[in-house]
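Table 4 source record.
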Amino acid sequence: MKNAVIILAVCMSLLSLSAQNAVRGEIAYLEGDVTISRKGEILPFYEVDMGLTLEEEDVIRTGQNGYLEIDMSYPASGSLLKIQPDTVFYFESRENGGSSSARVNIISGSIGLKVSKLARNESLNVETQSAVMGIRGTEFFVNKSPTGELLITCREGKVSCATPAMETFAIPGTVCLQNDGQDFKDEAVPVGRLDQYREQWWKARTDALVSLGPLAVEYYGGRYTRQLPLFNDAWEELNRNNRLFEEYESILARGETPAMAKATRDKMTLTSSVIKMRSALPLMEEIFYTLLILDEYQRRGLFNDSSRNLKDFGKRRDSLEKEIVKSRYYLSLYSQISRLAGGGGSALDSMMNDRTF
């Protein structure tokens, strides 16, 4: 009985620590088209307004005319994020002993950060599928083009830019660039030219995407056609457990703690489908949001595509986006179930840690 009480106390402590250290922020300003998906559902447009608290795992997307500023309350209270048009990202946090690591995960787009001083047990990284940018109390921009290139510019402090093979630093006077997921390269750019350089870099890549037009649609349409069956298969298997996910959603909302044995059994039930989805989801997100931008370009008359690629994509676009954001929410719930099962390793650990170089 004494051991059971100790185990329960450990579980409660883990959940309490997780709740206290979850990424939190508030919309300080917004304009244009901004979409927020929470717990797998897209929030009604009238709820997306100044003062809205943003939560861990919210998926935030700005449209072609969208802009957003977020005041962070944890970590680095007082930090400011400036979300540029055509950007998709989400927050997540992880616990490691007594320290907390928060992440801004950019799928595509541009985010400016002005970061206040972090506490000793806090860290804040910006991540993509190919790199990790570690913050050292600074003011900087991360830009990820729709085709995957990265540009990191720093006006104050320094930013660690890491791949599995190397690490370099963006500092005032030196920017970091990455192409095709390769190692970063440094380039000297005076601080006074950073804004101009960044704007020209972004324009060159979006102009190139527009100029390719139908060829870009054909390329990403082909990737979409190949990846969609893999994602559909992973979604079907993951969503079979929707009642179990809903059960834990209710448990967590009520602040309850199930028996560790139950959480362990349920974790084992979910693990296979979670692994499959974690393998399929990142690439599906990348392809989906690039096609979303190409579809917008065509709607604006920037090019004309006569193939069926965008038409086929348009038929699934809304339902597919809901499945994508729901999948990411289920992965978040699985991480919390894993903590309830004792806080040991989960099916997400090795894949998540791939980006912690």
